[in-house]
Specification:
This protein is α/β, with parallel strands linked by helices. The protein is 39% helix and 20% strand. Helix 3 runs parallel beside helix 4. 47% of the residues are buried.
Length: 294
Protein backbone atom coordinates (compact mmCIF):
# COMPACT_ATOMS: atom_id res chain seq x y z
CA UNK A 1 0.00 0.00 0.00
CA UNK A 2 1.37 3.41 -0.92
CA UNK A 3 1.80 6.26 1.54
CA UNK A 4 -0.90 8.18 -0.32
CA UNK A 5 -3.37 5.30 0.06
CA UNK A 6 -2.42 4.76 3.70
CA UNK A 7 -2.94 8.43 4.54
CA UNK A 8 -6.19 8.83 2.56
CA UNK A 9 -9.19 9.97 4.61
CA UNK A 10 -11.51 7.20 5.71
CA UNK A 11 -15.13 7.29 4.62
CA UNK A 12 -17.93 7.92 7.12
CA UNK A 13 -21.41 6.42 6.95
CA UNK A 14 -23.93 8.99 8.17
CA UNK A 15 -27.42 7.72 9.01
CA UNK A 16 -29.96 10.42 9.84
CA UNK A 17 -32.83 12.57 8.58
CA UNK A 18 -32.84 14.36 5.24
CA UNK A 19 -34.55 17.70 4.65
CA UNK A 20 -34.99 19.40 1.29
CA UNK A 21 -34.46 22.84 2.84
CA UNK A 22 -32.22 23.54 5.77
CA UNK A 23 -29.07 22.40 7.56
CA UNK A 24 -30.15 19.67 9.95
CA UNK A 25 -29.59 15.91 10.11
CA UNK A 26 -27.69 14.55 7.14
CA UNK A 27 -27.62 17.96 5.47
CA UNK A 28 -25.50 19.35 8.30
CA UNK A 29 -23.36 16.29 8.98
CA UNK A 30 -22.54 15.43 5.37
CA UNK A 31 -21.62 19.02 4.50
CA UNK A 32 -19.32 19.31 7.51
CA UNK A 33 -17.57 15.99 6.99
CA UNK A 34 -17.05 16.48 3.27
CA UNK A 35 -15.84 20.05 3.79
CA UNK A 36 -13.29 18.67 6.26
CA UNK A 37 -12.10 16.10 3.74
CA UNK A 38 -14.00 12.91 4.55
CA UNK A 39 -15.94 10.94 1.93
CA UNK A 40 -19.48 10.22 3.13
CA UNK A 41 -22.02 7.48 2.51
CA UNK A 42 -25.34 9.13 3.42
CA UNK A 43 -28.37 7.08 4.46
CA UNK A 44 -31.71 8.89 5.04
CA UNK A 45 -33.91 7.58 7.86
CA UNK A 46 -36.75 9.96 6.99
CA UNK A 47 -37.33 12.56 4.26
CA UNK A 48 -38.91 15.92 5.05
CA UNK A 49 -39.32 19.16 3.11
CA UNK A 50 -38.02 21.11 6.13
CA UNK A 51 -37.45 20.75 9.86
CA UNK A 52 -40.75 20.09 11.69
CA UNK A 53 -40.05 23.10 13.88
CA UNK A 54 -40.96 25.29 10.90
CA UNK A 55 -44.43 23.75 10.69
CA UNK A 56 -46.21 20.55 9.78
CA UNK A 57 -45.13 18.89 6.57
CA UNK A 58 -45.03 15.59 4.72
CA UNK A 59 -42.95 12.92 6.41
CA UNK A 60 -41.67 10.00 4.33
CA UNK A 61 -40.22 7.08 6.30
CA UNK A 62 -38.83 4.24 4.16
CA UNK A 63 -40.66 0.94 4.75
CA UNK A 64 -38.71 -0.98 7.36
CA UNK A 65 -38.09 -4.00 5.13
CA UNK A 66 -36.62 -1.74 2.44
CA UNK A 67 -34.50 0.15 4.95
CA UNK A 68 -33.14 -3.12 6.31
CA UNK A 69 -32.42 -4.38 2.78
CA UNK A 70 -30.50 -1.20 1.89
CA UNK A 71 -28.45 -1.44 5.09
CA UNK A 72 -27.74 -5.11 4.36
CA UNK A 73 -26.48 -4.10 0.92
CA UNK A 74 -24.06 -1.70 2.57
CA UNK A 75 -22.86 -4.46 4.91
CA UNK A 76 -21.74 -6.57 1.96
CA UNK A 77 -20.54 -3.68 -0.21
CA UNK A 78 -17.10 -4.37 -1.73
CA UNK A 79 -15.99 -0.92 -0.54
CA UNK A 80 -16.83 -1.46 3.15
CA UNK A 81 -13.13 -1.44 3.97
CA UNK A 82 -13.05 2.25 3.05
CA UNK A 83 -15.25 3.07 6.05
CA UNK A 84 -13.57 4.27 9.22
CA UNK A 85 -16.60 5.55 11.13
CA UNK A 86 -20.37 5.45 11.42
CA UNK A 87 -22.46 8.37 12.69
CA UNK A 88 -26.13 7.81 13.45
CA UNK A 89 -28.61 10.52 14.34
CA UNK A 90 -32.37 10.89 14.01
CA UNK A 91 -34.30 7.67 13.35
CA UNK A 92 -37.56 7.59 11.43
CA UNK A 93 -38.80 4.73 13.61
CA UNK A 94 -37.46 2.51 16.36
CA UNK A 95 -37.16 -0.54 14.14
CA UNK A 96 -34.33 1.12 12.23
CA UNK A 97 -32.04 0.77 15.25
CA UNK A 98 -31.41 -2.94 14.71
CA UNK A 99 -30.32 -2.33 11.11
CA UNK A 100 -28.00 0.46 12.26
CA UNK A 101 -26.48 -1.80 14.91
CA UNK A 102 -25.97 -4.58 12.38
CA UNK A 103 -24.17 -2.23 9.98
CA UNK A 104 -21.96 -0.93 12.80
CA UNK A 105 -21.04 -4.55 13.58
CA UNK A 106 -20.16 -5.22 9.94
CA UNK A 107 -17.98 -2.12 9.72
CA UNK A 108 -16.13 -3.03 12.91
CA UNK A 109 -15.66 -6.61 11.74
CA UNK A 110 -13.95 -5.25 8.63
CA UNK A 111 -12.09 -2.43 10.40
CA UNK A 112 -11.76 -3.15 14.14
CA UNK A 113 -10.62 0.38 15.02
CA UNK A 114 -13.58 2.02 13.25
CA UNK A 115 -15.48 4.54 15.39
CA UNK A 116 -19.21 4.52 16.01
CA UNK A 117 -20.69 7.80 17.23
CA UNK A 118 -24.32 7.82 18.32
CA UNK A 119 -26.19 11.12 18.40
CA UNK A 120 -29.41 10.04 20.17
CA UNK A 121 -31.68 12.67 18.62
CA UNK A 122 -34.87 12.29 20.65
CA UNK A 123 -35.82 15.60 22.27
CA UNK A 124 -34.97 18.93 23.82
CA UNK A 125 -36.12 21.18 26.64
CA UNK A 126 -39.73 20.68 25.54
CA UNK A 127 -39.49 16.89 26.01
CA UNK A 128 -39.34 13.98 23.59
CA UNK A 129 -40.25 14.75 19.98
CA UNK A 130 -40.04 11.12 18.84
CA UNK A 131 -42.23 8.21 19.99
CA UNK A 132 -41.02 6.63 23.21
CA UNK A 133 -40.41 3.36 21.35
CA UNK A 134 -37.89 5.16 19.13
CA UNK A 135 -36.19 6.79 22.11
CA UNK A 136 -36.03 3.40 23.85
CA UNK A 137 -34.43 1.83 20.77
CA UNK A 138 -31.68 4.45 20.72
CA UNK A 139 -31.06 4.11 24.46
CA UNK A 140 -31.18 0.31 24.63
CA UNK A 141 -29.82 -0.77 21.23
CA UNK A 142 -27.44 1.93 20.01
CA UNK A 143 -26.02 3.68 23.06
CA UNK A 144 -24.48 0.45 24.50
CA UNK A 145 -22.47 -0.20 21.32
CA UNK A 146 -21.31 3.40 20.73
CA UNK A 147 -17.72 4.49 21.20
CA UNK A 148 -18.87 8.11 21.49
CA UNK A 149 -22.33 9.54 22.18
CA UNK A 150 -23.42 13.16 21.79
CA UNK A 151 -26.75 13.65 23.59
CA UNK A 152 -27.94 17.06 24.58
CA UNK A 153 -28.58 17.65 28.26
CA UNK A 154 -32.30 16.97 27.93
CA UNK A 155 -31.79 13.69 26.07
CA UNK A 156 -29.39 12.61 28.80
CA UNK A 157 -31.99 13.56 31.42
CA UNK A 158 -34.55 11.35 29.71
CA UNK A 159 -32.13 8.43 29.55
CA UNK A 160 -31.17 8.92 33.19
CA UNK A 161 -34.80 9.22 34.26
CA UNK A 162 -34.05 12.24 36.45
CA UNK A 163 -33.49 16.00 36.19
CA UNK A 164 -29.86 17.07 35.75
CA UNK A 165 -29.82 20.56 37.26
CA UNK A 166 -26.06 21.08 37.48
CA UNK A 167 -22.73 19.91 36.12
CA UNK A 168 -22.23 17.37 38.89
CA UNK A 169 -25.49 15.64 38.01
CA UNK A 170 -24.77 15.78 34.27
CA UNK A 171 -21.33 14.23 34.77
CA UNK A 172 -22.71 11.46 36.97
CA UNK A 173 -25.36 10.60 34.38
CA UNK A 174 -22.83 10.73 31.54
CA UNK A 175 -20.49 8.39 33.42
CA UNK A 176 -23.21 5.74 33.60
CA UNK A 177 -24.71 6.25 30.13
CA UNK A 178 -22.70 3.48 28.46
CA UNK A 179 -20.26 4.85 25.84
CA UNK A 180 -16.68 5.39 26.95
CA UNK A 181 -16.74 8.96 25.61
CA UNK A 182 -19.69 11.27 26.19
CA UNK A 183 -20.01 14.72 24.63
CA UNK A 184 -23.04 16.38 26.23
CA UNK A 185 -24.26 19.51 24.47
CA UNK A 186 -26.39 22.23 26.12
CA UNK A 187 -24.64 21.44 29.39
CA UNK A 188 -24.85 23.88 32.32
CA UNK A 189 -22.15 26.53 32.10
CA UNK A 190 -20.03 28.04 34.85
CA UNK A 191 -19.89 31.39 33.08
CA UNK A 192 -22.87 33.72 33.46
CA UNK A 193 -25.17 33.77 30.46
CA UNK A 194 -23.41 30.85 28.85
CA UNK A 195 -23.88 27.27 27.74
CA UNK A 196 -21.39 24.47 27.36
CA UNK A 197 -20.26 21.24 25.77
CA UNK A 198 -19.17 18.70 28.38
CA UNK A 199 -16.72 15.99 27.36
CA UNK A 200 -16.27 13.03 29.67
CA UNK A 201 -14.02 10.06 28.89
CA UNK A 202 -12.03 7.60 30.95
CA UNK A 203 -9.66 10.14 32.43
CA UNK A 204 -10.86 13.65 31.53
CA UNK A 205 -13.80 15.89 32.31
CA UNK A 206 -13.71 19.00 30.15
CA UNK A 207 -16.15 21.85 29.66
CA UNK A 208 -16.05 24.22 26.67
CA UNK A 209 -18.29 27.26 27.19
CA UNK A 210 -19.56 30.15 25.12
CA UNK A 211 -22.23 32.82 25.25
CA UNK A 212 -25.80 31.58 24.98
CA UNK A 213 -27.65 32.77 21.87
CA UNK A 214 -31.43 32.89 22.20
CA UNK A 215 -33.66 30.96 19.80
CA UNK A 216 -30.85 29.31 17.83
CA UNK A 217 -31.56 27.56 14.51
CA UNK A 218 -31.90 23.78 14.52
CA UNK A 219 -29.03 21.47 13.62
CA UNK A 220 -26.41 22.43 16.22
CA UNK A 221 -26.28 18.92 17.67
CA UNK A 222 -25.98 17.31 14.23
CA UNK A 223 -23.18 19.69 13.33
CA UNK A 224 -21.36 19.21 16.64
CA UNK A 225 -21.35 15.41 16.32
CA UNK A 226 -20.01 15.54 12.76
CA UNK A 227 -17.30 18.13 13.44
CA UNK A 228 -16.12 16.37 16.59
CA UNK A 229 -15.94 13.08 14.69
CA UNK A 230 -13.90 14.72 11.95
CA UNK A 231 -11.49 16.14 14.52
CA UNK A 232 -11.02 12.73 16.18
CA UNK A 233 -10.55 10.96 12.85
CA UNK A 234 -7.92 13.57 11.98
CA UNK A 235 -5.96 12.55 15.08
CA UNK A 236 -6.68 15.50 17.35
CA UNK A 237 -6.54 14.76 21.08
CA UNK A 238 -9.88 15.03 22.90
CA UNK A 239 -9.14 18.40 24.50
CA UNK A 240 -8.23 20.07 21.21
CA UNK A 241 -11.12 18.36 19.39
CA UNK A 242 -13.61 19.65 21.97
CA UNK A 243 -12.28 23.20 21.90
CA UNK A 244 -12.08 23.50 18.12
CA UNK A 245 -15.45 21.82 17.58
CA UNK A 246 -17.16 24.14 20.05
CA UNK A 247 -15.48 27.17 18.51
CA UNK A 248 -16.50 26.18 14.97
CA UNK A 249 -20.14 25.50 15.80
CA UNK A 250 -20.45 28.62 17.95
CA UNK A 251 -18.91 30.79 15.25
CA UNK A 252 -21.33 29.51 12.61
CA UNK A 253 -24.24 29.95 15.02
CA UNK A 254 -23.24 33.50 15.94
CA UNK A 255 -22.79 34.55 12.33
CA UNK A 256 -26.10 32.99 11.30
CA UNK A 257 -27.88 34.70 14.19
CA UNK A 258 -26.34 38.07 13.27
CA UNK A 259 -27.76 37.73 9.77
CA UNK A 260 -31.17 36.71 11.12
CA UNK A 261 -31.04 33.28 9.47
CA UNK A 262 -33.62 30.65 10.39
CA UNK A 263 -31.23 27.85 9.35
CA UNK A 264 -27.51 27.42 9.96
CA UNK A 265 -25.74 29.01 6.99
CA UNK A 266 -23.03 26.41 6.59
CA UNK A 267 -22.26 27.16 2.97
CA UNK A 268 -21.60 30.82 3.80
CA UNK A 269 -19.37 30.03 6.76
CA UNK A 270 -17.65 26.86 5.58
CA UNK A 271 -14.24 28.27 6.52
CA UNK A 272 -15.35 28.29 10.16
CA UNK A 273 -15.41 24.49 10.12
CA UNK A 274 -11.68 24.18 9.50
CA UNK A 275 -10.35 27.49 10.86
CA UNK A 276 -12.64 28.85 13.58
CA UNK A 277 -11.66 32.18 15.09
CA UNK A 278 -14.19 32.27 17.93
CA UNK A 279 -12.89 32.10 21.49
CA UNK A 280 -14.37 29.57 23.88
CA UNK A 281 -13.64 29.08 27.57
CA UNK A 282 -12.16 25.65 28.33
CA UNK A 283 -12.30 24.28 31.87
CA UNK A 284 -10.83 21.13 33.41
CA UNK A 285 -13.33 19.61 35.86
CA UNK A 286 -12.89 17.02 38.58
CA UNK A 287 -13.65 13.65 36.99
CA UNK A 288 -16.64 12.03 38.77
CA UNK A 289 -14.96 8.63 38.76
CA UNK A 290 -11.63 9.80 40.18
CA UNK A 291 -12.42 9.00 43.80
CA UNK A 292 -13.60 5.50 42.83
CA UNK A 293 -10.35 4.81 40.99
CA UNK A 294 -8.18 6.06 43.81
Amino acid sequence: MSTEEHDAPRAVIVISSHVARGSVGNRAAVFALETLGFPVWAVPTVILPWHPGHGRATRIVPPLDQFRALMADLERAPWLGEVGAVLSGYLGEGGQADAVASLVGAVKAKTPDAVYICDPVTGDSGGLYVPETTANAMRDRLMPIADIATPNRYELEWMAGAPLPDLKAVMAAALHAGPSTMLVTSAPAMMAGGTGNLLLNGNQALLAEHRLIDKPPNGLGDLTAAVYLARILSGQPAIKALQSTTAAVYEILARTAKRGGDELQLETDAQSLSHPMATVQLRHLLHPGRDKRA
